[in-house]
Specification:
This is Beta-phosphoglucomutase. With 215 residues, the protein is α/β, with parallel strands linked by helices. Helix content is 41%, strand content 12%. A six-stranded parallel sheet has the order 3-2-1-4-5-6, sandwiched between helices. Strand 2, helix 6 and strand 3 form a beta-alpha-beta unit. Helix 1 crosses helix 4. The longest helix has 19 residues. It is globular. Bound molecules: 6-O-phosphono-beta-D-glucopyranose and magnesium ion.
Length: 215
Amino acid sequence: KYKACLFDLDGVLVDTAIYHFKAWRALGQNFGYQLTEEQNEQLKGISRVESLDRILNWAGVQASEEDKSKWLIEKNEHYLELISQMNPNEILPGVSDFLDQIKKEGYLIALGSASKNAEIILNKTGLMHWFDAIIDGNKVTKSKPDPEVFLKGAEALGVSPAECIVFEDAVAGVEAAKTGGMKAVGIGEVSVLNQADKVISSFEGILSKDLLNFQ
Ligand code: BG6
Ligand code: MG
């Protein structure tokens, strides 16, 4: 029944949240603002432009379009510098083994990420070869919770949404999957990802035949 697995990148396959946090926090110094870790949580799954808008809103700062574009570039340059050292050790526990299992079982595999830097990260960590299709922030116009990123992933794989299982760590991402008519596996806490069909805390020790046996 299920033919494809669609993976979010940040927080599901690799842990880049720390790099986004460092870069946003440093950027906040331009307008005297200290981003907290709790706020960083709320930026998960959210596009770069939208993240800046939220931060400026928390900081109570009204910025010109010029400043905003300058800051978006500055944040990304810093982020690129931080991820330039990424390597296969930064693949989250159990992920490679899980990808191995589903590949052998014949599932198609796609990426569905809001990040415009997804391909760089997949290449640095050696994850690229697993993917049959990649839909990232450069290919979508609407951010999660809009289902666009996952619907485009299904389309690229030539499967219907009902044949897809999405793996997500963000509330907005789980919502996107469900709105798109897909099954959603949350990676994180049940209390947070309560819209997901199943929730696991990580891929470590996970057997695909047990996880993907939806009714
Ligand atoms: C998402 C992250 O995957 O990508 C967000 O969870 C990030 O934190 C977004 O803002 C956009 O990423 P990038 O790499 O295009 O700035
Ligand atoms: Mg994520």
